[in-house]
Design goal:
Elements: H1 3-37, H2 45-75
């Protein structure tokens, strides 16, 4: 496979990694917004800690997706 053929695959892999990272960030925000905008959810200290732990997990996944994109770019010959 030539470098020209690899570029679209690399571009797609980077785009997909960035989209996955954004999706994980959005999930964190959406969950928090759900908690604070609906009276059905009681945001006591325990629930807030759980919400923040979930956000941390989603952001860690986002970082992994971004690192994957970076590694793909770094491993591609110029």
């Amino acid at each position: 496979m030539s470098i020209d053929e690899e570029v679209p695959e690399l571009d797609w892999a980077v785009i997909k990694s960035l989209m996955d990272a954004q999706a994980n960030t959005n999930t964190s925000l959406e969950r928090y917004l759900l908690y604070v905008t609906h009276d059905d959810f009681d945001l006591d200290e325990r629930h807030m800690e759980r919400c923040l732990s979930q956000a941390i997990n989603h952001h860690q996944r986002a970082l992994e997706d971004l690192k994957t994109a970076r590694d793909l770019v770094a491993s591609t010959p110029d």
